Amino acid sequence: MAQAASTGFHAQASPWLKGRSLEDWRDEFDRRGFVIFERVLAPDQVAAIRAALAPYLDRDLKGRNDFEGLKTNRVYALLAKSPLFAELVIHPLVLAFVEAELGPSCLLSAFLAINLHPGETVQPWHTDDGGARLPRPRPALGVSTFWAIDDTTETNGSTEVIPGSHLWDERTIEGAAKPSDFNARSALDQSHDPGHRADAVKLAMPSGSLAIAKGTLWHRGGSNRSDRPRLIITPQYCAGWVRQLENMCLAIPPDIARTLPERARELIGYSIHPPFMGYVDGVHPNRVLHAAAPPSR
């Protein structure tokens, strides 16, 4: 069982709990490995996010391998793209789960937009904290969140999860990610799905909704069999002592990092995991960041 969420986030998360206690939602999270909250973002917030992403999606850069998706746009390092994205990273509903699971010294491990185009095939099954080579079953070392910018549906590539799989041991499953998926550029047959499972659930959500999943949960991006793209944004978090997937202190330039909300700045690495993991030249990284700021004019 994860730690209890902080009282502050408990209170701030209440508008989205639908009359249920946060503890009740946490029980479901522990049991199934994921939870869904519908329409957390208002339509105007979604519209602003689309506008901020548009210049990067317009470049239409596709994935480099079958894991990224050869018909998928991925926009990385979102905190360096617009201050608007910080609101998703530090959303109180998200942090109520993330901090309860990983502790207050948790870090932002990755933060990207994923835009599946029509014809994209299924992604290999994987877990987001699988890079930590520790025996399963074990507590999650990460938490992944999925913000639906478009409606995610049965046909347009909604993320698929296997409920309860976060509790599994070291088993392997058909269609799981393998090393070749990260360098192959094959033309997969969309009609053939070696990883199809009757126990999988598609995270169908209306635009503005949020799914939260444990890093140990088996999941994959679905195939887009519709005639329109499917856009989500996924902030992913890790325990404070686990290496981040993306090197955030390089991905987010210092002049941008200084402008971020304090909690977002802590999450990208300007923070300490007790007693002193993360220091810079013997001092707190936040002190170094601000000491290096150019003088005001």
Question: Mind explaining what this structure looks like?
Answer:
The chain starts with 6 loop residues before the first helix and ends in a 6-residue tail after the last helix. It has nine helices and nine strands. With 297 residues, it is of the alpha+beta class. The model is unreliable at 1-7 (pLDDT under 50). It has helices at residues 7-13, 22-32, 43-57, 86-89, 92-102, 248-251, 254-257, 262-268, 285-291; strands at residues 34-37, 72-75, 107-116, 142-148, 160-161, 201-202, 210-214, 219-220, 230-238. The strands form two sheets. The chain has a six-stranded antiparallel sheet with strand order 1-7-4-9-3-2. A three-stranded antiparallel sheet has the order 6-5-8, with no helix packed on it.
Q: Uncertain regions: pLDDT < 50 for 5+ in a row? A: 1-7
Order of helices and strands: HHEHEHHEEEEEEEHHHH
Query: How many angstroms does the end-to-end distance come to?
Result: 51 Å
> How many β-strands, per DSSP?
9
Beta-strand residue fraction: 15-25%
Separate helix tally:
9
How helix-rich are the residues, as a percent range? Answer: 10-25%
Helix/sheet category: alpha+beta
Strand order of the largest sheet: 1-7-4-9-3-2
Mean pLDDT: 92
The multimeric state of the shown protein is single chain
Radius of gyration from the CA trace? 19 Å
Shape: globular
The major beta sheet can be summarized as:
6 strands, antiparallel
